[in-house]
Amino acid sequence: MTPRSPTLDRLGKAAKPQTATSQIAKPHIARVQADPSELNSSRRQTGIRIISDMPWGSHLCIFYDTKEDLLDTAVRYFKAGLDNNEFCVWAVANPITRQEALGALRRAIPGFEDYLAAGQIELLAGKDWYLNGGEFDLQRITGGWAEKLRGALAKGYDGARISGNAFWIGTNHWKEFCEYEEELDRSLAGQKMIALCTYSLHASRTVDMLDVARAHQCSIVRRKGDWEFLETPELKEAKREINRLNRALDILSQSFPGHETLTPRERVALVQIVRGASSKEAGRALGISPRTMDFHRANLLKKLGAKNTVDLVRKVLGE
């Protein structure tokens, strides 16, 4: 039976922690194979209220405002992992110390000493883990996470939960760590592992935040206890396009002055116009030529008494 909580038996059987210095052939975590159906059906509690649960392979990012925001978020995240039979690794770095991290975990997690003694959670020195000897080595870092996951599964844990704080903001290693985040995001796919990366809100420039957000599946901001989602320009544009499409589709059923004069084909063409599509784009969507779309546009302007396309959209939407 898979162990669900730390026990004396596990203490007796616990193996020595794997290290990042093991021989590693490839930088990917993908060497640990998992059943795809199990990965898709098993969602894991994140401990983070705003996102609740996520599937294995999730790569999360949080921009924190204060040290307290960072500690509280990380502790809740790891508590959920310990409660659900996951092996946890926290690469601790400034602005918190190992002792501060341990103190926060002890205060918030009942029986934490048992988890720690059983080896279900490890606290690493973040700078040594990511920059061993002052050198950045993408293969060593991602391979190290692979070793942690393999060891966790061998001991009977459901999977691994990791987190590290980005101490590299503003250093000459920034570009290398951006590449690391992208590689980690790819490597997590199909693995029984969840990763949480934490970044200081004050230390991050806007352009840095966008770079980081693009390398994660979900990015949120923790500001003095409050939560909000961080949206990339691509996500904002996608939401705007969805809103435009929803408004355009309403035209198929709503009434507006002159609607009764339109043919079904003209209504469908009108949807594309309100959506903001060009004649070429609309033609492609409807399976007609751009010239035919221009013909429909001219008829719509005439029937609805509009001066131009902008006026047409205003009349239809009642603006």
Task: Explain this structure.
- The chain has 319 residues and is α/β, with parallel strands linked by helices.
- It folds into two domains: 8-230, Rossmann fold; 236-317, Orthogonal Bundle (Arc Repressor Mutant, subunit A).
- 48% of the residues lie in helices and 15% in strands.
- The strands form two sheets. The chain has a seven-stranded mixed sheet with strand order 5-4-6-7-3-8-9, sandwiched between helices.
- Helix 8 links the parallel strand 6 (159-165) and strand 7 (193-200).
- The longest helix has 18 residues, at 233-250.
* Topology order in helix (H) and strand (E) letters: HHEEEHEHHEHHEHEHEEHHHHH
As a percent range, the share of helical residues equals 40-55%
Please state roughly what percent of the residues sit in beta strands, choosing from under 5%, 5-15%, 15-25%, 25-35%, 35-45% or over 45%. Answer: 15-25%
Mean pLDDT: 81
| Number of separate structural domains | 2
Number of helices: 14
What's the end-to-end separation, in Å? 64 Å
Task: List key phrases describing it.
Rossmann fold; disordered N terminus; 319 residues; 15% strand; 14 helices; 9 strands; Arc Repressor Mutant, subunit A; seven-stranded mixed beta sheet; alpha/beta; two-stranded antiparallel ribbon
Tell me the layout of helices and strands:
Elements: H1 8-13, H2 36-41, E1 43-45, E2 53-55, E3 59-64, H3 67-83, E4 86-92, H4 98-108, H5 112-118, E5 121-125, H6 126-130, H7 138-154, E6 159-165, H8 174-188, E7 193-200, H9 206-214, E8 218-223, E9 226-229, H10 233-250, H11 264-275, H12 279-286, H13 290-303, H14 309-317
Parallel strand pairs: 3-7, 3-8, 4-5, 4-6, 6-7
Antiparallel strand pairs: 1-2, 8-9
